[in-house]
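Hey, I'm writing a tutorial for new members on how sequence and structure tokens pair up, and I'd like a real worked example in the thread rather than a made-up one. If someone can provide the structure for the chain below, I'll link this post from the tutorial.
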Amino acid sequence: MLYPVIGVPKLGDSLLRQYLQYKYTHCLKKAGASVEILIPNAGMGAVEHALETCVGFLLPGGPDIQPQLYGQMEESGCGELNPTRDAFELALIQGALAAGKPLFCIGRGMQLLNVALGGTLLQDIRARQEYSHQDFWNRSSATHPVEIDPDSLLYRIVDADVTTVNSIHHQVVDTVGEGLWITADSPEGFPEALELEGYPFCLALQWHPEFMAAQVPVQQALFRAFVDACRKEL
């Protein structure tokens, strides 16, 4: 079997960040990938090296994105920011898209993909939600259903038009970026998945399959589909 090298930005050095990093890495390796942890660096040299080394990229969860990057002022509900990660991961997304490399964007990664393509975010949804969307303590359990577009890649992977997912976020996609389309949404109408029209493999999820994958096979299947797409690029 061929083991494609997939790049994943480093989440941080704390024990919590290392645990979160492990969840992504474990799912990717279980699906047959080799993983390279990418150190966020604003210099283009780091991005170029990653593009040369990695077949595809997983953009993981993390802090909120700087609102000025999508044309807004910071609101009271906006949380922790990390400008270094923003700069590095935006450059990585743009480089990967230009090269046609497979992308799997999770949580913050979905939001960042949307921003990279000119979209905007709602900075805090806690006053608008019907279900709890920031439920870290129940991260391995389903929190709410999502409806899936039957014409989507996501539908082909999960083979269903409804599934139940966890939820660990307080921001969502608002205006959708150029070329993207919503392929799943929550009962409130919040986007839960995005795909890029006409792109070989670009799947973005607002939920976190890495926490459900051990108990729910269809969530691990999402990682397997991504790794299979990367393997085809070898």
